[in-house]
Specification:
The complex is a heterodimer of chains A (279) and B (613). Chain A has 279 residues and is of the alpha+beta class. Chain A has nine helices and 14 strands. Chain A has helices at residues 15-23, 56-67, 85-93, 121-130, 136-139, 149-153, 168-182, 196-202, 217-227; strands spanning 9-10, 13-14, 31-34, 46-49, 72-76, 100-105, 108-109, 113-117, 144-147, 188-194, 206-211, 247-251, 255-257, 269-274. The chains are: A alpha+beta (279), B alpha+beta (613).
């Protein structure tokens, strides 16, 4: 595409930064695996480089896992622009008693949107030595938990997480999709009024959000967390799907909304406040 | 006995003697500590019909089973007496080191009756009772009193609770203060003043012994962790002042004596603004992981002042004051004199409106106008000293309005004589019911009725009889919290409160205490408060709201045009009495007493005097 995928401009910033910002609220430590000598923007991550170039996904997973902290790591590619935080949380939640948790979308395993236990490192090393550069070879050798399509759709109805950009057309489509979801041209807008801790964290009292026409409060939380990442994990849940415990939404000064599935109406004034009115 | 000591100390200031007395286990099991035990003792020690400011009215300080354990937010004590403001029960809480030291005396309650011949302070030192001259402390502020008494006792380990000028002058909404905190509502400081008791100093060495240390530590550790999560973020990051902007947004911020429910200058007074512009430091009670207190930079005193929502609302929007510095000055005066800020603000707001309507020339002359801070500050000084118009206002809004006459009682915003806290009843209908029926008077602490209004599960702008069970459950819950004693700011951190709290009681006391037993204890404690009030001539008309709330609709904010119809309130009250198992007039039937096991000697004085209970 003329430019390394990681540096394609997306939502006004290099794609790799977009991915990092998406994952940051979910994970304490992020590792980015770059090809030898590849230049990347400054990011709050651990940056490692492949020892050998062109070793495919197995190489990326191997070097990433090697540098990762903790027993498990979630692995994704730098062109997954539409990652679903709820899906990632679900995958992580399945990891007990398994070495790999991997989604199967449209009949194919998705090894670059999967969870790996670090104990698979020797097997990956062996694969690299044998030139077996496809991750699926690993799945037969370890305790693999496939996550099937119907299960995926509960968290990511359209499988947007699996959308990759391999051609200029894919890139153009990704930009179009993003605009439809998030741009100001989207069909409804609402105003978020922040009170208390939310206001202190965001350092603003009010934020205007553009949302799809059928937006629910889950869209609001996702969009708000994207706009103010500091809110994720504090006021909005880490997976961005709901408010954190202790917070509640009030709509237009009247109705208190507790369900993330509730629909947002055009022009709604949504106040995010502490659920505890005591004092 | 674990968790408790099984005894109380009764000090008679008239004779100067202190007597220890056993507290039997069944009574502690039934009433726990704190407010529950205090209520039970009040029924026993207060003669029916006693004048609240007479020597015979007992001033009761109670400890609780959890005080001195490793459970967070439990360093608290209760003060229970007959209120000089309402004529009914006054039950207030305060906290921190005085609470811990009171427990270290090896008593569960300190009952004080009688009257010292001259201003005195009581020193209970490792079990010894000493009543000392305090005439040299007359007029001193609580913080000065604490410093001076500690110095003259040469006992750095002593902790002190005291009254300010307001208590000495029997202002009916005077507080008892310790370490900057106050047992604030209902005029407990005036009762202390009526006994010529300037202060109580305590110094002990007994450590609370729990039955199952490991089990208690497991729960305590878990609660400590939960207490620093998102559920308490508001308290830890902003303190309760965070309420002001939210309440204004919801049309629930009482303004200018409840003439409006929004304040045009709310932003200047909001917790967010104060935190950004005037924040000085964060503080908290002993043994607390939440640390909700906020001190803000002030232009007077020692340069900083505690402020929480109720004080901010009462001395701010309720009096039309918009400058945070003025509110902080007013709060500082109230702390210095030992005045309940809610009742002070409520009484001043009444006086301002009455003056503006031409019925109270003295208020007008003093400069009392909505928005005029100097007038408010002058009036606070006058109240504490009972000088000029302060003599009238020191009686509280109900008595002041009755004496002033005309239509002024219509805008005296109290229930049973206790001024309303900062929750607008017309836009918070469950809270309206909670305020109307509370035994303490207009109170936001002895139930959390507003929680239903903020839950999204009820229509907060429209009342219905189904609010009755919600308020009753909330009162019982509060009775348990206030008797164990656990801070209400921890309440949301429990996953299953009654199960976890029963496990705590069992672990601390060694009793096999069940959820059901705890629920029943909550209902019993609340019911005995009501029985005390009935004995003190409570009538159905006392469970009601001020005329303004029932005749005027809100004129601003999202709830503009909303009112509270008397029938709407009556329906809610009936729903409440029904949920409580009381009769239609709100009296407690005999079968309810039997059901709750309220027939012991301690409550025998309750029977027969009302003719209905």
């Amino acid at each position: 595409m003329g430019t390394p995928k990681a540096l394609l401009l997306f939502d006004g910033e290099p794609l790799i930064l977009h991915i990092v910002r998406t994952l940051q609220p979910l994970f304490g430590n992020l590792v980015v695996v770059a090809s030898p000598g590849q230049q990347l923007p400054s990011m709050p991550v651990t940056l490692v480089h492949d020892d050998v170039a062109y070793q495919g996904p197995v190489g990326g997973i191997y070097y990433g896992l090697k540098a990762a902290e903790g027993e498990f790591a979630f692995v994704t590619s730098c062109d997954s622009a539409f990652l679903s935080a709820p899906l990632i949380s679900h995958l992580m939640a399945q990891r007990a008693d398994h070495d790999v948790v991997v989604p199967r979308w449209e009949g194919r395993f998705q090894p670059l949107l999967a969870v790996y236990r670090r104990t698979v490192l020797p097997l990956l090393e062996q694969q690299l030595a044998n030139g077996q550069l496809r991750p699926v070879y690993l799945f037969d050798k370890v305790r693999t938990r496939p996550v099937e399509e119907d299960e995926i759709r509960r968290f990511d109805p359209d499988g947007a997480s699996f959308f990759n950009m391999n051609t200029p057309e894919d890139y153009a489509e990704a930009l179009t999709r993003w605009r439809a979801l998030h741009d100001r041209d989207a069909s409804i807008t609402c105003t978020i009024e922040l009170f208390g801790v939310a206001q202190l964290l965001a350092q603003t009292k009010e934020i205007s959000l553009a949302l799809p026409p059928d937006a629910t409060f889950a869209h609001v939380f996702e969009a708000l967390a994207r706009r103010v990442p500091l809110l994720a994990g504090r006021v909005i849940s880490a997976d961005r799907s709901r408010l954190a415990d202790g917070y509640v939404c009030n709509v237009n000064g009247l109705d208190f909304v507790r369900s993330a599935a509730a629909k947002v109406n055009p022009g709604d004034n949504i106040a995010i406040i502490s659920a505890d009115a005591g004092g | 006995m674990h968790g408790f000591w099984g005894r109380l100390l009764h000090v008679d200031l008239t004779s100067g003697r202190g007597v220890y007395r056993d507290l039997e286990e069944p009574r502690l099991r039934q009433y726990l500590g704190g407010i529950g035990l205090g209520t039970s003792l009040l029924c026993e020690y207060a003669p029916a019909g006693v004048d609240p400011l007479s020597p015979a009215n007992p001033l009761i300080l109670t400890s609780a089973p959890l005080v001195g354990t490793r459970l967070t937010t439990t360093a608290k004590f209760a003060v229970v007496t007959k209120s000089p403001l309402t004529g009914f029960i006054a039950d207030s809480l305060s906290s921190s080191h005085f609470a811990l030291e009171l427990k270290r005396l090896g008593i569960d309650a300190l009952v004080i009756t009688g009257q010292a011949p001259a201003l005195a302070y009581l020193f209970v030192d490792h079990g010894r009772v000493d009543i000392r001259n305090a005439t040299h402390l007359r007029g001193s502020a609580p913080d000065e009193t604490e410093t001076r008494i500690r110095a003259e006792l040469d006992s750095p380990a002593a902790w002190i609770a005291s009254i300010g000028t307001a208590g000495e002058n029997l202002v009916r909404f005077a507080t008892i203060s310790n370490e900057g905190r106050h047992a604030g509502r209902g005029g407990v400081g005036a009762v202390m003043g009526s006994k010529n008791l300037k202060a109580i100093a305590v110094c002990g060495d007994r450590a609370t012994v729990v039955a199952e240390p490991e089990a208690v530590e497991t729960i305590a550790g878990s609660l400590r962790l939960r207490s620093v999560g998102s559920l308490t973020d508001k308290y830890r990051r902003l303190g309760t002042v965070a309420n002001l902007a939210v309440f204004n947004h919801l049309g629930a911020l009482p303004t200018r004596n409840f003439q409006q429910a929004t304040f045009e200058d709310a932003e200047a007074l909001s917790g967010e603004t104060l935190t950004g512009s005037s924040f000085s430091r964060r503080h908290g009670c002993a043994s607390c992981t939440i640390q909700c207190e906020r001190l803000f930079k002030s232009r007077t005193g020692n340069g900083e002042q505690r402020l929480e929502y109720e004080t901010l609302f009462a001395l701010g929007p309720l009096c039309g004051i918009r400058d945070p510095a003025d509110v902080l000055d007013a709060a500082q005066l109230c702390d210095r004199y030992g005045l309940d800020t809610i009742s002070t603000g409520g009484t001043l707001a009444w006086a301002i409106e009455t003056g503006e309507r031409g019925l109270l020339p003295g208020a007008w002359k003093l400069g009392l106008r909505f928005g005029n801070a100097q007038g408010v500050l002058s009036a606070i000084r006058a109240i504490a000293a009972r000088e000029g118009i302060g003599e009238l206002l020191a009686e509280g809004s109900r008595r002041a309005a009755t004496e002033t006459g005309g239509s002024s009682p219509d805008w005296a915003m109290h229930v049973k004589g206790l001024e309303l806290p900062g929750y607008e009843p017309r836009s918070l209908k469950t809270m309206a019911l909670g305020l109307a029926v509370s035994p303490r008077g207009a109170c936001h602490n002895r139930s959390g009725a507003y929680e239903a209004d903020f839950s999204g599960k009820v229509d907060r702008l429209r009342g219905d009889p189904q609010r009755g069970p919600l308020v009753a459950a909330s009162e019982d819950f509060a009775a348990v919290l206030d008797s164990l004693i656990i801070c209400k700011f921890l309440r949301k951190c429990f996953t299953d409160f009654y199960a976890e709290a029963a496990a705590i009681v069992s672990g601390v006391t060694g009793w096999d205490y069940t959820e059901d037993e705890l629920r029943t204890a909550g209902e019993r404690i609340h019911t005995v408060k009501k029985l005390f009030n009935i004995r003190e001539q409570w009538q159905p008309a006392d469970d009601w709201l001020p005329p303004r709330l029932l005749t005027e609709k809100l004129t601003s904010g999202v709830a503009r045009g909303v009112g509270l119809h008397p029938e709407e309130l009556r329906g809610m009250i009936q729903g409440y009495y029904q949920a409580r198992g009381w009769d239609e007039a709100g009296f407690v039937p005999e079968r309810k007493l039997e059901e709750l096991g309220i027939a012991s000697a301690s409550e025998s004085s309750l029977h027969g005097s009302s003719g209905r209970a």
